[in-house]
Amino acid sequence: MQALVFNGTRDVVVTEVPDARVERPTDVLVRVTSTNICGSDLHMYEGRTTLEPGRVLGHENLGEVIEIGSAVDRIRVGDMVCLPFNIACGHCKNCEAQLTGFCLTVNPGTAGAAYGFAGMGPYNGGQAELLRVPYGDFNCLRLPADAKEKENDYVMLSDIFPTGWHATELAGMRPGESVVVYGAGPVGLMCAYSAMIKGASKVMVVDRHPDRLRLAEKIGCIPIDDSKGSPVEQVLDRTAGEGADRGCECVGYQAHDAQGQERPNLTMNNLVMSVRPTGGIGVVGVFLPDDPGAADDMTRRGEFPFDMGHFWFKGQKIGTGQANVKTYNRRLRNLIHTGRAKPSFIVSHELPLNEAPEGYRHFDARDEGWTKVVLHPDG
Ligand code: NAD
Ligand code: ZN
Predict the structure, then answer these.
(1) Which-ligand-closest: CA of 325?
(2) Which of 251, 224, 229 is CA-nearest to residue 239?
(3) Complex prediction ipTM
(4) How far apart are the CA of 270 and the centre of ligand 1, in A?
(5) pTM (two decimals)
(6) When you count CB atoms within 10 A of the terminal residue's CB, does the N or C end of the chain come out lower?
């Protein structure tokens, strides 16, 4: 089959690899029809993490079931399914508590697994013609009859729509509250969109890319351009000096300041200062432990100064981690099905698989207008 394979830092190629196949009785085999490039793929692409060359990337996948293992009894051949990026067994202590991002079975020794991801198990990704889905009955979300028509909406259920929603949950957001979101990438925009759907009184979105800020404004949020002045002061100005009730981190430790200088701790400390005393902070932007094998081990650190003093003194709360996609994706699927949510508003480019390296290059450069790339391996 054709697949997008990781070769090394900023080096991905589309090449022929052995077909994905049913390997265990509980597996499902999917013919991938949509698969996104994600900001999380850039942790590997930019060399912040160590990944062996040859691994197929892609954890935001949707497609048609073409084969099932002998122990699969809920999912059927022909079903259109969206695959949560978390691979989970469905039976361990964490899965039973709906914490599927931290499944204890699929990646022994640590927690949580994903398709095509460094440090998250040996699984191949879905930027390919075929994808093997372990524990298929648990890890497939069946889609309704409008699956084809709304494919660019439903594919966002694999990761970024539930992840954005998760950030608002981690922050403890309630209807009527004000929210500040750091980052207007795909995840930040999905977070801001979730806060709007959940009835926030005011959603402020911080970034410096005009095209991304325009999208935030289009969905009813207040764009905050941090190249025009301190984002903390701009948030305080818009919240009567109190700070926002809730804050969401949707950037991760690759954060830059508005001048382009790497500042892994910047968004965390800005959040502490722009959220009100006793407010909540949800962190879905990725912060990984220091990886000695990474291409750049000086600045991509797992440990960095965090303003614990202000955080403690303000009595704030914080929640972190991978999104447990399954906790939300049925409900978010229903919002899409009934027309209450249309997350495809962030899609800027749809490309065939063989143009994926171009998609990576532009998305990585944050080129104007390259907000979210959907790849279609079926052409
Ligand atoms: P992205 O890189 O496209 O977007 C990040 C945005 O943050 C960019 O627009 C950038 O300009 C902006 N930014 C950089 N520094 C900033 C700063 N100091 N203040 C404000 N904005 C700043 O990536 P994305 O796809 O939106 O993903 C964002 C993060 O979410 C990544 O770390 C990704 O790995 C993570 N993620 C986490 C989960 C999860 O389950 N927790 C799932 C998906 C993605
Ligand atoms: Zn993703």
Answers:
(1) 1
(2) 224
(3) 0.99
(4) 15
(5) 0.97
(6) C
- Whether residues 181 and 302 share a domain: the answer is yes
Low-confidence ranges of the chain (pLDDT < 70): 296-301
Domain containing residue 133: CATH number: 3.90.180.10
pLDDT at 69: 98
Neighbours of 185 (CB within 10 A): 24
Any atom of ligand 1 within 6 Å of the Cβ of 226: yes
Give the tens place of pLDDT for each residue, 250-275. Answer: 999 989 999 999 899 999 999 999 99
What percent of the residues of the chain are helix, what percent strand, and what percent coil, each to the nearest 5?
A: 30, 25, 50
CATH number reported for the structural domain that contains residue 269 in this entry: 3.40.50.720
Contacts of 41 (CB under 8 A, 6+ apart): 57, 58, 59, 116, 360
Q: Which ligand is closest in space to the CA of residue 254? A: 1
Residues 212 and 346 in one domain: no
Instruction: Kindly report the protein residue whose alpha carbon is nearest to atom 11 of ligand 1.
Output: 207
The whole-angstrom separation of Cα 352 and Cα 98 is 35
Domain count of the fold of the chain? 2
Q: Which domain holds residue 113?
A: 2-159+324-376
Does 134 share its domain with 165?
no
Burial class (CB in 10 A: 0-12, 13-18, 19+), 31: middle
Three-state SS across 271-297? HHHHEEEEEEEEECCCCCCCCCCCCCC
